[in-house]
Amino acid sequence: MTVASALWSFALLAGLLTIIPGLDTALVLRSSLTQSRSHAYATAFGICSGSFVWGAAAAVGAAALLAASELAFTILKLAGAAYMVYLGVTMLVASFRRRDEEVSLPVVKPARSYLASFGKGALTNLLNPKVGVFYIALIPQFIPEGVFPLGMGLLLALVHVLESLVWFSAIILATQFARKWLTSPKVVRWIDRVTGGILIGFAALLALESRPAV
């Protein structure tokens, strides 16, 4: 397998997996609808930064060691589940407190809010063992013999990141056309409730999931 063939093969598989609706898509969609395009991109870049970390870890074998360790996987799994529950409960509580006359978009300091959106995306990605398992299963298989593992792993992660950004951009731009209707207080409440429910559901599945086979 050459570097070029590895990149093309990985791009095809990762692209198909990227468009499958999941937690990352839900977070970016929610941010785009309830905050702004810039916040949605900040969330997306946070998610992508987590992908880089997982890609590097998988390439050097650290992620494989994590999957092989029952204790390490359990700790990360529970931490990720707890964080998702926190996000989900926060959104649900906020949705029931928000009144119809309230402004749907909060007034916050841009720099601070962008950093918070980035951090939310990064932490959600980094604390999700399923992302690690994804890279554990795929990246080692697409590293040609004789190629520097860390460099190739980051290159493969970059391919996935670029595909994710294209997908996230399509979602963000599509929501902007319907933004006037979708950001009404009543709709925002339901967006938070649905997204919060998805987060809690993912957390439950994550907490109940057994250690992946390696």
Describe the structure.
It comes from Antiquaquibacter soli. Pfam families: LysE. Keywords: Cell membrane, Membrane, Transmembrane, Transmembrane helix. There is one protein chain. The two termini are 23 Å apart. The chain has 214 residues and is mainly alpha-helical. The longest helix is centred in the C-terminal third of the chain and has 29 residues, at 149-177. Mean pLDDT is 76; it is low at 100-108. 38% of the residues are buried. The protein has one domain (3-208). The protein is globular, with a radius of gyration of 18 Å. Helices cover 80% and strands 0% of the residues.
How many separate helices?
10
Order of SSEs, N→C?
HHHHHHHHHH
Strand content: under 5%
> What count of domains describes the coordinates?
1
Membrane topology: Multi-pass membrane protein
Subcellular location: Cell membrane
Organism: Antiquaquibacter soli
Pfam families: LysE (PF01810)
